[in-house]
Design a protein that fits this description.
This is Sulfurtransferase TusA family protein. This protein is 28% helix and 33% strand. It is an alpha+beta fold. It has a single domain, classed as Translation Initiation Factor IF3. A 4-stranded mixed beta sheet has the order 1-2-4-3, with helices on one face.
Length: 78
């Protein structure tokens, strides 16, 4: 995933639950359908919360990777 693949990048490293998913929700709200958001988070619960948020809100989780202790998500607004 390259910088050109995303419209917005969120660095949520160091934030604890529920802040990563709340900030992800807030960042997605103004985006147009099809826009892509890259999220980086260190909170262990983010690997559960962010995919669940996507499913519930109708967004697509395009990828979920791990880079050491950082979870990296690529989301597409539905």
């Amino acid at each position: 995933m390259t910088v050109s693949d995303v419209d917005v990048h969120l660095d949520l490293k160091g934030l604890k639950c529920p802040l990563p998913v709340l900030k992800t929700r807030k960042a997605m709200a103004p985006l147009k359908t099809g826009a892509r958001l890259r999220v980086e988070a260190t909170d262990p619960m983010s690997v559960i919360d962010i995919p669940h948020f996507c499913q519930e809100a109708g967004h697509r989780l395009l990828s979920q990777e791990r880079d050491g202790e950082v979870a990296v998500f690529l989301l597409e607004k539905g």
